[in-house]
């Protein structure tokens, strides 16, 4: 018994040393970019099998009020919104209200070439529709309150960039269209559909459709960096990015999101699997975007990744399914990108996990 207890004690000591070393290495990776406690900052979290291995905040959540960042602060997550939009489409498909192979003309009869563009094309960025963020006239609507239909009308008559399914080209317009379809098919506002069908079911109590008017507890304020110093972020109407980039969340809520996906809270395994499948272009070439996630690899191990960038904020998350490891970083200055940092942390945790196996 004594030998067993001694062995157990030694293994605990070794684990704690290993964990402390990992913690220190993660700190070092983050502090290459987030190294000034008086600047806008960010929050980083690492979880494995649902348990938090690392969670720390850096810098300030509000410069004017001198408020330190905490893990509970709420950030705009930008294009990570696309994950929620894609899963919402699959929820509607599971309810028999649409299929991903439906042409968009089934729901928007007057959409140009709508017979040849499917929901699948929108989900996978292979539609060829003009990305509204690249249109010169975007500044004319950036601060206007736009209905989903107004947003679709804004870009729908633009010349297409290529034929549907011809190639992969990241496209925000496609996800605005998906948000509009969610409203048309469900009979609910996109904001309400996400709240009821995702946030509430996953227990994400600190996640929202973004608003500058509503009082949001623990809101992190967004910043730009100019030659003369930091300035408050440019104000845009959240109705413009809409279903392509207008959600807000915390690192802890995003872990709940990943956990709910793993536990099939929203969809059956065969339904959610569609989001994580690599599809093919018309020429049979495989590409690495599913429905709302980039499907990539770290050291030959499959990952699901996505980032986001919106005025004043940047975000990035990497999930490693084989190890059930989730790494997320959120920043409240678009001058500080968590993208490479998050990838480097994921690689470090993966390598550390492999050593322990």
TrEMBL record:
Keyword entries, A-Z: Signal
Species: Chryseobacterium defluvii
The Beta-lactamase-related domain, residue ranges: 39-334
Pfam families the record matches: Beta-lactamase
PANTHER family given in the database record: BETA-LACTAMASE-RELATED DOMAIN-CONTAINING PROTEIN, D-ALANYL-D-ALANINE-CARBOXYPEPTIDASE/ENDOPEPTIDASE AMPH
Gene3D superfamilies on file: DD-peptidase/beta-lactamase superfamily
The protein's name: CubicO group peptidase (Beta-lactamase class C family)
Signal peptide: 1-20
SUPFAM superfamilies the record matches: beta-lactamase/transpeptidase-like
Domain of life according to the entry: Bacteria
């Amino acid at each position: 018994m004594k030998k067993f207890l001694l062995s157990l004690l030694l293994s605990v000591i070794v684990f704690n040393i290993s964990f402390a070393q990992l913690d220190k290495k993660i700190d070092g990776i983050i502090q290459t970019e987030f190294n000034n406690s008086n600047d806008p900052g960010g929050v980083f979290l690492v979880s494995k099998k649902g348990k938090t291995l690392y969670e720390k905040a850096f810098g300030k959540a509000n410069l004017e009020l001198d408020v330190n960042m905490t893990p509970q602060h709420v950030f705009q997550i930008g294009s990570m919104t696309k994950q929620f939009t894609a899963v919402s489409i699959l929820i509607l498909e599971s309810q028999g209200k649409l299929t991903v192979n439906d042409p968009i003309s089934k729901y928007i009869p007057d959409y140009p070439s709508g017979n040849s563009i499917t929901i699948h094309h929108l989900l996978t960025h292979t539609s060829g529709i003009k990305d509204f963020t690249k249109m010169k006239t975007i500044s004319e609507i950036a601060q206007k309150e736009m209905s989903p239909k107004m947003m679709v009308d804004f870009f729908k008559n633009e010349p297409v960039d290529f034929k549907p399914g011809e190639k992969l080209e990241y496209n925000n317009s496609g996800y605005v269209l998906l948000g509009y379809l969610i409203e048309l098919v469900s009979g609910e506002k996109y904001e309400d559909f996400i709240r009821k069908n995702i946030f509430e079911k996953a227990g994400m109590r600190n996640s929202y459709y973004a608003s500058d008017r509503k009082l949001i507890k623990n809101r992190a304020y967004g910043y730009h960096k100019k030659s003369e110093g930091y300035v408050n972020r440019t104000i845009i109407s959240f109705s413009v990015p809409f279903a392509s980039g207008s959600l807000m969340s915390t690192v802890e809520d995003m872990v709940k999101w990943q956990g709910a996906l793993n536990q099939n809270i929203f969809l059956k395994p065969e339904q959610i699997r569609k989001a994580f499948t690599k599809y093919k272009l018309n020429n049979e070439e495989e590409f690495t975007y599913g429905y709302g996630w980039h499907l990539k690899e770290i050291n030959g191990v499959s990952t699901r990744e996505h980032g986001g960038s919106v005025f004043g904020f940047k975000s990035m998350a990497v999930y490693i399914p084989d190890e059930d490891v989730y790494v997320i970083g959120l920043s409240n200055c678009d001058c500080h990108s968590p993208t490479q940092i998050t990838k480097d942390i994921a690689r470090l945790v993966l390598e550390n996990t492999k050593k322990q196996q």
